[in-house]
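Reopening this one. Same input as before:
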Amino acid sequence: MGRLALLASVLVPLALFGSNRFSAAVPIAHDPNGFETIPWGSILGEMEGFTKIDEAGRLQTYELNGQSPSLGAVPVDSLRFTTFEKKLGRVTVRYTGQSNHTKILSYLESNYGPLDRTPGQIAVGSVKVYTWHGLYTEVTLRFEGGLEHGIVFFESRTLPEKLTDETSTTAF
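Same output, byte for byte:
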């Protein structure tokens, strides 16, 4: 009976909430093979304009020097660049506010492709997740409506290391 209760406690919430929290992935028509003008695999330590803020073994984290973080024209809370063995593999953007979320979603759709707005395709509920997949790049946006916190991951799909750090891809 204990196994059945455990199984039910895991599967019932997934059945009730899991199916309507996520939207389908959108294919990226023109994959940038990097983040904005910086190609995946770039060595940020050799580039002007970046400051290393953390190092954890083979992972290093950088921020832009002397600039307020933004995604396109949208101000954000943080913009961090993660390298694996010195090669750029992930950019993480954190932001707050429904207004910023709307602007960031519009920016992502204009750069990576429009979401399928067919009823039932867009996520409902307090947590929304949107994904764009390209040959070289994957973009994942997660927004928690109740707290108005958002996070966007831009990741290389071609670096074999795939940056398996301790951070969950949906963590705030």
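So the earlier flakiness isn't reproducible anymore. For the record, Helices lie at 2-17, 98-112.
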